[in-house]
């Protein structure tokens, strides 16, 4: 539930389930004008990784961001060249800035994503001028799932993937997918009647739209398919999300070729636009599917080393990543005593990775897949800090010496 829609004041970021170092204090500055805010940012903000949030004059969270150097990032909002851009508009609407340091840039990325999903600040998910809006591709809906896009995936979806940039392009892909897999796309208010569903009276049902009559829907609203038959279509649709089903692209290419041969140029043009949207989506899904196959390990992330030599370095963190998703985390051990305390959890991680069950969602944080995949694509050298839990004893000693 989005608490902010009811006008409640934002009191704090809340718990962080992926931070094993414990609760972090939330710092804040308040000012009545952007120049005053800028002065306080320069005085108070640290040069450390972390996340920040902007509150408007009603005390509502309107934006969340992250940076590996908080002070540098926040001062850029006040640059004259950003006055008419998104950064300048956010500052003009803000009266309070809150921040929370993190042990590393990777930890800040995880925290930022978590907070955007929890609070859905309007400048993160809606008011993004001159920029495509990120959305998630979702497969869900009771009792007959179908493809749809949403700015945040509902908790009860069968599967979801993303985020993807461009709501218009993604909606076109969604329409093409629902047509190919013959999934419904009607309102949740539409009553559904599966062929194997018992009814007190044998009533003639009327379709809620034309899609069944033109062969683009299985017709669960008129009892033209059993629940099992529809579930088989959903399973094939889920295989497309996993990157294992290229049928929709092949079918559209064949349709374009036939339309061109029959000189149906308008149809060919329309289907070509569908193909562009689906090819874009399929490339992204293949990229994420590759991340699921490759990224299963423990990722050791070093803590931030402050520029002030008198300040204590941040502790490192070990993240369990399974099928590309962040599952759990522990404080990186630095000595034999700490490693002995961590051994039961590391042994559990070894059993988790040995589990033959190939669950599509490997953790409680499936939305971290895209973050992990992009992070390691941009910084492949970080793979040198990954290892299997069975190597933890040797690796902790190597990493502790760094």
Count of spatially separate domains: 3
What are the secondary-structure elements, in order, as H or E?
A: EHEEHHEHHEEEHHHHEEEHHEH
Radius of gyration: 25 Å
Reported for the largest beta sheet, the result is: 4 strands, antiparallel
The gross shape turns out to be globular
Helix/strand-derived category reads alpha+beta
**Strand arrangement across the biggest beta sheet:** 1-4-2-3
Poorly predicted runs are: 1-7
Tell how many strands the DSSP assignment holds.
11
Number of DSSP helices? 12
In what range is the share of β-strand residues?
A: 15-25%
Q: Helicity, in percent?
A: 25-40%
Indicate the mean pLDDT.
Answer: 88
N- to C-terminal distance? 44 Å
